[in-house]
Design goal:
The structure holds two protein chains of two kinds. By secondary structure, chain A is an alpha+beta fold. Chain A has three domains: about 5-285, no CATH class; about 295-410, no CATH class; about 420-480, Arc Repressor Mutant, subunit A. Chain A has 15 helices and 16 strands. In chain A, strand 6 (about 100-110) and strand 7 (about 115-125) form a beta hairpin. In chain A, helix 14 crosses helix 15 (about 465-480). Chain B is an alpha/beta fold. Chain B has a domain at about 5-255 and about 470-480: Amidase signature (AS) domain (Amidase signature (AS) enzymes), CATH 3.90.1300. Chain B contains 16 helices and eleven strands. Chain B has an eleven-stranded mixed sheet with strand order 1-3-2-4-6-5-10-11-9-7-8, with helices on both faces. The longest helix of chain B is centred in the last third of the chain and has 25 residues, at about 370-395. Chain B is globular and about 65 Å long. The interface of A and B includes residues 272 and 277 of A.
Chain lengths: ~475, ~500
């Protein structure tokens, strides 16, 4: 049987997290009543003119520099002409001839090891509005709130060979953009979108097969499924002696299948040409230097620093840096409590567990770092049991309560004075004469029985060590009596 | 002195001296409109009520010292491709028959700040595409000098209004000669400023890289004053320049031609130029030299490429700029259609006129994949060569002289039969737009039938001061030019 290799290239759209749109002063905020974040410019009114938001260029440069790209220091905007009502001017302002960034790469890691994925280009463009089809009224409505929201399109070379690599690449981009602070990259809200270009060829073949482009991929899972589905579809065609047609296909994740949208023959002619309303952008050496030197610490650097500075294992450093937001929270806690490894354990254990159990977005996790740091220190000083500390932390996680006073108020503080311990011990021994006799008779097994009883009675107010110590002392005392 | 014979500057001066009321100027204009508009049809919309109300406001503003500029109190007409908040802006197209912008063009805000009064919107070629004002969807404008002739275009309404005394001054727009050519045909003065001098915000785009708004007036001084009002940096227009030399009125104070060097492209006077226009042009050269100016002839080798380069670039940009008129958001929508594609097709087929559709098709073609390099890119390279040739000329000359058009105003109905011949009529004006240069047309003579002839003075980029000085000096030497009010057939 023939062996096939999948060849995949990606076009990823990332919505930039600027406050205002790319060519006007309207807000980019998600949501909002339809057409409330609009003006003559982003609704394509006659006579309106675009004015470039400088921060878009800055964000694109940050992304390009992080992805090891070359910068076109003289770059331009082009118009991409096509008629559709979501696009108020019927042309999209994009970049074709001189994109801002080109020829870069990012490194991904999969079970097979590390691999470089080359970036063909990154360009700036504007997003379109949203069409809403009202089936009851048999009409379509358009909302231009998203019209003019800045995007960068990141076009990779056809360097990926499996859905695993594709997901790793997307995760890499997402993490990079979040670290740079240029995008939140949410697939559900459409702030990160990917189109998959895929072809198959026999293993060992030097030439590429005919590719298709897959659109409408709304989650990593859908992307993985679409890649598997399209690979199988193309192999089947080839095995049957039929040809793969170069076309754009739309993935339907409910049906787990795709259908052709348009073939190469009726591919649109976008009649690209330089936008005469926007002068070329000159990016100075000084600007690039400024951005290069002010780039935030990216995940890879942070991972290394955690290993060196905090002496954390590589595994911990990897997990803790998956989200920039979480890593920042972690670092504050680590610094405040003075025990990075303990803090790491809390994050990898309780923080991530609660996040998962409560179905929360990791970016939304929020509590005062000092609260967790105090809790860690209290456990360290044996002022609260590990078990109670976890319960208290859930309160910190949910409501950001102040743990020190909470523990006091709820009587969860470990009892220091042995008087109370002894009183309870006496009471339990009196209530259980049988087991006591066995214990005094040297039966070690019942030791655990008494410890358990004690712990239950104390409700975690004493540490098991303290209970054990008190019990040993009492047994010694009684034996000697 | 009768109000109607006054220039805008003279009117404003009288107003500021409290000898004339602001409302009197406005009423005078509407009196003339009442008398002549039925024949001329310079306007698409008139705001008599608003203008009289605004006149009161301005009167008070002048009293209170808010409006102190040299054009305070002057009524002005505005070409209908310039947006005024709450007023229909049609571009003389059916497709925008009901379009009312919710914003002012930057120039409108500037007129208001100067204490001027907008009296109405003037007719034009549809979307400024045409050289006769005959492509308007709302009827032709007639030349006030002879109603059987066109006023030129595309700012034909603005130029006819000024010529007929239906306005003291007007705003036009110039993409390939649309101010300078009708100014010549109507015997008025008009300026196309250096690209970027006047904000395009709110000017409905025809060809964005070539469009400029400019003044139309009774003489050079009026135009200079109006240019000073509308010029200036606008952050809303990315192609707007931040010039520090906007004191245009100053440059005409010294009316001296002595020592100024004028260049005349030889090729401009070869075949195709009407002998009567050529005679008037040569006479003008004599006047200039008699005042101590130096006039030399030089060769422009790129002349035959100017029209093709212009029509390719302008049509390409227009095909994209006019895509937004689709029946979805505003303007005309076909009454009956099946589905989106059909709605687009019918709306645009019914909403646009022939000339606009011709240019959309031409522009779409030259941008199509496979033709882009051969046409559009080549046109851009040609434009660069033309610019180089003008740059070299301006190393030697202060001002370049050219006819404004190869002939005087043609008769109504003659031009549209042969669009290509009409395009060739733009030969003396398009290079100015391709190179971003300033140009002014000043009346310099009349043909045997009495139709006016203008001469065009072209400056280097930012050379408004030189062309204004030359034009004002020539004008002073020429003496008062007749108007159709006195001496024209319509008098």
């Amino acid at each position: 049987m023939k062996q096939y290799e999948t060849v995949i290239g990606l076009e990823v759209h990332v919505e930039l997290a600027t406050k205002t749109k790319i060519f006007c002063g309207c807000s980019t905020e998600f949501g909002g009543a339809p057409n409330t974040h609009t003006c003559p410019v982003c609704t394509g009114m006659p006579g309106s003119l675009p004015v470039l938001n400088r921060q878009v260029v800055e964000f694109a440069l940050k992304a390009g520099i992080a992805a090891n790209c070359q910068i076109n220091q003289y770059c331009k905007f082009d118009r991409k002409n096509y008629f559709y009502p979501d696009n108020p001017q019927n042309y999209q302002i994009s970049q074709l001839y001189l994109p801002i960034c080109h020829d870069g790469w990012v490194e991904i890691e999969t079970s097979a090891g590390k691999k470089k994925i080359r970036i063909h280009e990154m360009h700036m463009e504007e997003d379109a509005g949203k069409l809403i089809h009202d089936e009851w009224e048999d009409c379509s409505l358009v909302d231009y709130n998203r019209s003019g929201v800045p995007l960068i399109e990141i076009v990779s070379e056809p360097d990926m060979r499996s859905s695993e690599e594709v997901i790793a690449y997307l995760e890499k981009l997402r993490c990079m953009m979040q670290y740079l602070g240029v995008s939140d990259c949410k697939l559900q809200e459409g702030s990160m979108r990917a189109d998959v270009n895929l072809s198959v060829r026999e293993v060992g073949s030097e030439t590429f097969g005919t590719r298709t482009e897959m659109k409408n991929l709304n989650s990593f899972k859908a992307i993985a499924r679409a890649i598997e589905g399209e690979r199988e579809r193309q192999i089947e065609l080839i095995e049957e002696g039929r040809a793969v047609v170069q076309e754009t296909r739309r993935w339907d994740d409910n049906k787990e299948s795709s259908h052709a949208m348009r073939s190469k023959e009726d591919a649109k002619d976008y009649r690209y040409f330089p936008d005469p309303d926007l002068p070329p952008i000159h990016i100075s050496d000084a600007w690039i230097y400024e951005i290069r030197t002010s780039q935030p610490e990216l995940r890879e650097e942070k991972q290394l620093r955690y290993q060196e500075e905090f002496e954390l294992p590589a595994y911990d450093a990897g997990i803790l840096t998956e989200s920039r937001h979480l890593s920042e929270l972690f670092e504050e806690v680590a610094n405040l409590c003075g025990s990075p490894k303990k803090a790491a354990n809390w994050f990898m254990g309780e923080v991530l567990r609660l996040t998962k159990d409560k179905g929360l977005d990791v970016e939304k996790v929020s509590f005062t770092p000092k609260h967790l740091a105090d809790l860690i220190q209290m456990v360290e000083k044996k002022e609260v049991s590990a078990q109670n500390a976890k319960k208290v932390f859930e309160k910190v996680f949910d409501e950001d309560i102040e743990p020190v006073s909470y523990i006091e108020e709820h009587g969860l503080k470990i009892v220091e004075d042995t008087g109370l311990l002894n009183d309870i011990l006496q009471k339990i021994m009196d209530e259980n004469p049988g087991p006591l006799a066995e214990l005094l008779g040297g039966k070690e097994k019942v030791f655990g029985f008494f410890v358990g009883k004690m712990m239950r009675e104390l409700k975690g107010k004493a540490s098991p060590d303290a209970v054990r110590e008190a019990l040993v002392k009492e047994v010694e005392k009684r034996k000697n009596q | 002195m009768e109000l109607q014979t006054m220039t805008a500057l003279e009117l404003s001066k009288k107003i500021r001296q409290r000898q004339v009321k602001v409302a009197d100027g406005v009423k005078e204009v509407f009196d003339q409109i009442e008398k002549k508009e039925g024949k001329v049809h310079a306007y698409l919309d008139l705001y008599k009520k608003d203008a009289l109300a605004r006149a009161k406001e301005v009167e008070k503003g002048i009293m209170d010292g808010i409006y102190t500029g040299p054009l305070a109190g002057v009524p002005i007409a505005v070409k209908d491709n310039i947006c005024i908040k709450g007023k229909k802006t049609t571009c003389a197209s059916k497709i925008l028959e009901n379009f009312v912008p919710q914003y002012n063009a930057e120039v409108i805000d500037r007129l208001e700040k100067a204490g001027m009064i907008v009296i109405g919107k003037t007719n034009m070629d549809e979307f400024a595409m045409g050289s006769t004002t005959e492509t308007s969807a709302y009827g032709v404008t007639r030349n006030p000098w002879d109603l059987e002739h066109v006023p030129g275009g595309s700012s034909g309404g603005s130029c006819a209004a000024v010529a007929a005394g239906e306005a003291f001054m007007a705003l036009g727009s110039d993409t390939g000669g649309s101010i300078r050519q009708p100014s010549s045909f109507c015997g008025v003065t008009g300026i196309k400023p250096t690209y970027g001098t006047v904000s395009r915000y709110g000017l409905v785009a025809y060809a964005s890289s070539l469009d400029q708004i400019g003044p139309v007036g009774k003489d050079v001084a009026d135009c200079a004053a109006l240019l000073e009002v509308i010029a200036g940096h606008d952050p809303k227009d990315s192609t707007s320049l931040d010039r520090k030399d906007l004191d245009f009125s100053k440059s005409i104070e010294e009316k001296k031609l002595l020592g100024m060097k004028f260049g005349v492209p030889k090729e401009f006077l070869a075949k195709g130029l009407d002998p009567e226009v050529k005679d008037a042009f040569m006479e003008t050269l004599k006047v200039l030299t008699s005042q101590g100016a130096i006039v030399e002839f030089f060769s422009v080798e790129t002349m035959e490429y100017m029209i093709p380069a212009y029509y390719i670039i302008a049509s390409a940009e227009a095909s994209s700029n006019l895509e937004r008129f689709d029946g979805v958001k505003y303007g005309y929508r076909a009454a009956e259609y099946e589905g989106l594609h059909d709605m687009y097709k019918k709306t645009r087929t019914e909403g646009f006129g022939e000339e606009v559709k011709r240019r959309i098709m031409l522009g779409s073609f030259v941008l199509s994949s496979g033709y882009y390099d051969a046409y559009y890119l080549k046109a851009l390279r040609t434009k660069a060569l033309i610019k180089q040739e003008f740059d070299r000329a301006f190393d030697k000359y202060d001002v370049i002289l050219a006819p404004a058009a190869p002939y005087t105003a043609p008769k109504i109905g003659e031009s549209l039969k042969d669009p290509l011949a009409m395009y060739l009529g733009d030969i003396y004006t398009v290079a100015v737009n391709l190179c971003g240069l300033p140009g002014i047309t000043v009346p310099c003579g009349q043909d045997k039938a009495g139709m006016p002839i203008g001469i065009q003075m072209i400056g280097n980029c930012f050379g408004e001061h030189k062309i204004l000085r030359a034009a004002a000096a020539y004008e002073a030497e020429r003496g008062a030019f007749p108007t159709p009010l006195k001496g024209g057939k319509e008098a």
